[in-house]
Amino acid sequence: MYLRLQLILFIGIIFSTTEIIEGIIDPTSGIIKLSHIFNTLSLKNLPRSLDIIHNCIANSNLNPTIEIKKEKINPFLTKLRGDIVSSKINPNTISTSIFEFLKLDEKYITEEFNECCIDFHLNLFTVEESKLNNTTESLTKMVDLRFTEAFKIMYGCLKEYKSLDNAVKKRYGIRRQSKNNQKSKIERVHKLKQHTIDVMSPNKNYTSQYIVNSLEEHIHGKHNHTNLFAKPCTAAYYSYLVFNDYAMR
Q1: pLDDT digits (tens, 9 = 90+) for 130-177
Q2: In the chain, what is the straight-line distance between the N-terminal and C-terminal CA atoms, in Å?
Q3: Among candidates 116, 115, 117, 111, which has minimal Cα distance to 97?
Q4: Cα–Cα nearest to 193, from 135, 139, 133, 134
């Protein structure tokens, strides 16, 4: 009887996780909620991102003959935020866009300024530090309820921003493949779910930033430094798990 029950539970996990992955194949999966999450995060983080650019301009010798005032550049940077969220601009071209707006020669673009622009981008999607007043049992239930949609949002986010690299696609994407490959990928999704519950455990008391970094590393690997939407899409995944229902609408 016990073995039969264990078999039923295992089959239930396999079928439910298969449904998760198959749902991801729809390119519009979770996009509406993703847009809401990214707008919520980026608008809240915009003042800090503006400061990053202002401080960088103040500390860099972009062009000593030109005085760059906040009231001139802030509206442009605010529009830039919207363009990033709506995928109208590649984060790698932020520095060029700023120089074009300021009518500065691109020869003044330094590696330091490029890094500031990447910081501007990544800071827009920083998750808010929040304490979850969950027990281990209630946390597990919350993740059980929201994991499917959170996973769709994360995977759909990577596709939407053309950041779904081959490594992640190979680990989690399922098309018409052998049963063994499909089963191994289902197991990886289940491991992500278990890792999520573990790293968010109230017994660990990790910060939200640590949790997002840990989840990003689990999804993308330790040495992923070039995918500029790896962290934002992971932040969207985490945000959906912890945001209340009203904030998601």
Answers
A1: 777 788 899 999 999 999 999 999 999 999 999 998 888 888 875 555
A2: 44
A3: 117
A4: 139
